[in-house]
UniProtKB/TrEMBL annotation:
InterPro entries: AH/BAR_dom_sf (IPR027267), F_BAR_dom (IPR031160), FCH_dom (IPR001060), SLIT-ROBO_RhoGAP (IPR051627). SUPFAM superfamilies: BAR/IMD domain-like. Pfam families: FCH. The keyword Coiled coil applies. The keyword Coiled coil applies. This is SLIT-ROBO Rho GTPase-activating protein 3 isoform X3. The lineage of its organism: Eukaryota, Metazoa, Chordata, Craniata, Vertebrata. Gene3D superfamilies: Arfaptin homology (AH) domain/BAR domain (1.20.1270.60). It comes from the Eukaryota. Residues 18-314 form the F-BAR domain. Keywords: Coiled coil.
Amino acid sequence: MSSTKYKKDKEIIADYETQVKEIRNQLVEQFKCLEQQSESRIQLLQDLQEFFRRKSEIELEYSRSLDKLAERFSSKIRSSREHQQFKKDQHLLSSVNCWYLVLNQTRRESRDHATLSDIYTNNVILRFAQISEDIIRLFKKSKDIGIQMHEELVKVTNELYTVMKTYHMYHTESISAESKLKDAEKQEEKQFSKSGDLNVNLLRHEDRQPRRSFVRKIEKIKEKRQAKYSENKLKCTKARNDYLLNLAATNAVVAKYYIHDVSDMIDCCDLGYHASLARTLRTYLSAEYNLETSRHEGLDIIENAVDNLDNRSDKHKIMDMHNQVFCPPMRFDYLPHMGDEVCQVSAQQPVQTELLMRYHQLQSRLTTLKIENEEVRKTLDATMQTLQDMLTVEDFDVSDAFQHSRSTESIKSVASESYMSKLNVAKRRSNQHETEMFYFSKFKEYLNGSNLIIKLQAKHDLLKQTLGEGERAECGTTRILVNQSHWLLKAV
């Protein structure tokens, strides 16, 4: 029975030692886990720094390329006649104004991307570096505190192990003392039983003294073992109390460590990490959003200029800029020959009848020409409307090309079926060229017809005026001042 209890005690102690060892291994692995977490965060921040460093270089390179592009065409513009005229009266053609604004927008984007590069280099990257330093520093401090906490756990578990062994030792001694006490009590009972049987014999042989001394000896052994048992039992009780108290304290400390202290230690390692990372990334977002805001502001200016594209206004500006070229020439004066003093159309006989005949012929022909030219004009207007519909079709929306949720294949299929696909472009260009050819042929026909009408109409009006004055003067000579209509009097 004693050996069985001894084996059980050894198993209990071995299980306890295994449990303590597992806790110590957990504590070591916790530090490894936190250290790996810190290293992964530092690696993440290093990757972010390298990414934004390269992105800054790309933005700066892009900024310089945009600036060179704008400067290349700006230098070309500065020597142009339109620019000289602009410097003179600050008055640009609407199309040239759009071109100037595109160049200004390019310069603006160049400056904005240079600013973005500077923000990445001198703000965002520095923030990531500071966060890395904070992680290393905080992990070191958290590890120092964790080591103290681990030492405290090891200390309380060792104390528990000590008081447990003390309790087991005293309990073993108490059991041994109790066993010896029971043996003494059995010997005493046995002796008393023998004494009862020997009393009669003693009366016969008169041999009582040795027996009494033996009984007293047994009683003394019992008393001694009783005292030893009581002493060991008291020690065992005290040791058990100490063990139970230390057990409760140890369990409380271990529970507090795993439930609260570990979480608090991780919080110490994380102190400010997410907040600092969020602030850094929000700096990146702010820079990008402001870049887009600036870009949209510039594009809005260009869009307003595009909305104000006006061919009529540009036409008048061109004619005003080159007024000497487009100004009507001076009227042709009547030049008499060899002292001829007659400078008026004469409606006297015998030319009056001829003039009247010519007048009616002109009137009839004008009526026919005006009807024909009006039909040409209607066809010309309809053709112009068709051209306008072709030229103003809303084919500029390319939002489908920026649908990132779609796959690459679907984007390619959308592009191939779009308005600007090669097949559609060739078809539209062919239709446009045919319509333009028809339009210009009709326009030419309309100009020729209108020119002929204006010439015949001038002759018709002059003859009408001359014949009318001739009738009022009857046989007098009707004269019209040549300086009012002589430039219309070309031979019919």
